[in-house]
Amino acid sequence: MKFLLVFDFDHTIIDENSDTWIVKCAPERKLPNGLRNSYQPGHWTEYMSRVFVYLGDNGVKEDEMKRTMTTIPFTAGMIDLLGFIGENKELFDCIIVSDSNTVFIDWILKAADFHKVFDEVFTNPAAFSSTGYLTVEHFHAHHCEKCPKNLCKRKVLKEFLDKQLERGVSYTQIVYIGDGGNDLCPVMFLKKNDIAMPRQGYTLEKKISQLAQSLSPVQCSVVVWSSAIDIMSYLKLLIKE
User: Fold this and answer.
1) Binding positions for Mg(2+) (predicted)?
2) 230 in a labelled binding site
3) Is 106 assigned a catalytic role?
4) Where are the domains of the chain?
5) Per CATH, is 2-16+74-239 categorized as 3.40.50.1000?
6) What is the DSSP annotation of the chain?
């Protein structure tokens, strides 16, 4: 029996938002106000598409973007944690479910040699067009009213678990590690035996505690972390049990 580790990416594996970090490539490292103010709630992917067009229009090339993205710092302790998981792959299946994109995540994981730690990455598909512009698409369509229209992480997790069951793989426990508001939906899907690990001081932790105060707490256990060393210590306890 294995544990399933589910990671968010931005502000969880890396200590920044990959989508806002790319703005360092823009002229004067900032976006024009009109573009910056064009974001509409729930439509982040469309907004990022406009950002990528702006970068392309300003001659920002793939290699410059890649150099910039691979300077993003990992969250404190994360390099140790991913090393630990990599050494114990017989115990852990490990996936990423993120609202970033395939190009950014691939660059960052490969540059640090962590791509083999993860069995699958579920995120918005991205690619460079023939003209050298980065394009990004919605991950999927869904009917969840709580989530941004391009990605419901609960749906991703449920479909992954169903597919694994068909292959004869079921998990002793699921450990969900994240920070953001869009991590609440999958956390609410977790069962009593599972563990949600929200990052201390971030939106997910606040939303989970609001639910507890309104007497509709999540079913799973909740363990807050501030450094990935906290996560590693907890996983070490789990595998001893």
Assistant:
1) 8, 10, 179
2) no
3) no
4) 2-16+74-239, 19-70
5) yes
6) -EEEEEE--TTTTBSS-HHHHGGGGSGGGS--HHHHTT--TT-HHHHHHHHHHHHHHTT--HHHHHHHHTTPPBPTTHHHHHHHHHHTTTTEEEEEEEEEEHHHHHHHHHHTT-GGG-SEEEEE-EEE-TTS-EEE--S-----TTS-TT--HHHHHHHHHHHHHHTT--EEEEEEEE-SGGGHHHHHH--TT-EEEEBTTSHHHHHHHHHHHTT---SSEE--BSSHHHHHHHHHHHHH-
179 among annotated binding-site residues: yes
Active site residue 8: yes
Taking 80 as the threshold, does the pLDDT of residue 215 lie above it? no
For 134-192, the pLDDT digits (tens) are: 999 988 988 998 888 899 999 999 999 999 999 999 999 999 999 999 999 999 999 99
Q: Please state whether the predicted TM-score (pTM) of the whole model is above 0.85.
A: yes
Q: What are 49-69's pLDDT values in tens digits?
A: 999 999 999 999 999 999 999
